[in-house]
């Protein structure tokens, strides 16, 4: 049986590319996003009562990888990217149906230019992700205190030390009025160490770059220390190392 799904909205997030997107929701609390509902689902009545909930579930499409098909086994980064598991035992993007599930904190609802907008945080979705459905998070049913999660039973350790050069601090400070959370956001993203698993044990100095919001962020990693060297406002993507395994 084939199903035809409609996009109920598009989410706009700080993550302009897959590299550096946290591998699960809630790991970067400073990640703010706006979900703009699409016609005919952009009626205020469709959101009536949702403000009573602190969090929402988002069902979305892996739109950047959906044309690549699926694999019966994948290599989860949590296992070092070497061990293979069945696709249904992971949250890989390469699935029989390119559907994902994510939970987000609901910070509020607004209407701008006759558009209904959900203001969210703790997002782990790339900018422009199509949202297929929205459901309220219900703690008594959705939070199972006795659940077990195999190889992913605990949250990943975000212990990468993140430093900022004086230049980066000045550049971030210039954006404080519009992005007061920018430094905390960058620090939370890089503390997760978004590098591919096969690069994490190398001690040589490496330089990376990614686009967050509309800033080109450059940093270097040496041993266990990340140093942000520049945060430049630019519409052109960074032409540096920019990669992330597709499996989450």
UniProtKB/TrEMBL annotation:
TsaA-like domain sequence ranges: 5-146
Alphabetical keyword list: Methyltransferase, S-adenosyl-L-methionine, Transferase
GO BP annotations listed: methylation
Taxonomy, superkingdom: Bacteria
Cited Gene3D superfamilies: YaeB-like
Keyword S-adenosyl-L-methionine assigned: yes
Matching InterPro entries: TrmO-like_N, TrmO_C, UPF0066_cons_site, YaeB-like, YaeB-like_sf, YaeB_N_sf
UniProt cross-references to SUPFAM superfamilies, sorted A to Z: YaeB-like
GO MF entries: tRNA (L-threonylcarbamoyladenosine(37)-C2) methyltransferase activity
Tagged with keyword S-adenosyl-L-methionine: yes
PANTHER family per record: TRNA (ADENINE(37)-N6)-METHYLTRANSFERASE
Family (UniProt): Belongs to the tRNA methyltransferase O family.
Name this protein carries in UniProt: tRNA (N6-threonylcarbamoyladenosine(37)-N6)-methyltransferase TrmO
UniProt organism field: Moritella marina ATCC 15381
Gene encoding the protein: tsaA
């Amino acid at each position: 049986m084939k199903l035809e799904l409609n996009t109920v909205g598009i989410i706009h997030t700080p993550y302009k590319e897959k590299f550096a997107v946290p591998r699960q929701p809630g790991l970067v609390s400073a990640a703010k996003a706006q979900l703009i509902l699409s016609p005919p689902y952009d009626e205020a009545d469709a959101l009536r009562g949702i403000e009573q909930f602190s969090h929402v579930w988002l069902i979305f499409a892996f739109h950047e990888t959906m044309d690549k098909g699926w694999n019966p086994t994948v290599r989860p980064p949590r296992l070092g990217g070497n061990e293979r598991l069945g696709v249904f035992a992971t949250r890989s993007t390469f699935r029989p149906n390119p559907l994902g599930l994510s939970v987000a904190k609901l910070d509020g609802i607004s209407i701008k230019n006759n558009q209904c907008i959900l203001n969210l945080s703790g997002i782990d979705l790339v900018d422009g992700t199509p949202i297929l459905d929205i459901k309220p998070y219900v703690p008594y049913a959705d939070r199972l205190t006795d659940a077990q999660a195999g190889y992913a039973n605990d949250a990943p350790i975000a212990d990468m030390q993140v430093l900022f050069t004086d230049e980066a601090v000045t550049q971030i400070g210039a954006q404080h009025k519009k992005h007061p959370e920018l430094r905390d956001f960058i620090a939370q993203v890089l503390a997760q160490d978004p590098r591919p698993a096969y690069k994490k044990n190398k001690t040589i100095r490496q330089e990376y770059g990614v686009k967050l919001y509309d800033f080109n962020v450059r940093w270097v990693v040496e041993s266990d220390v990340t140093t942000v060297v520049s945060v430049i406002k630019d519409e052109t993507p960074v032409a540096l190392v920019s990669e992330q395994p597709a499996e989450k």
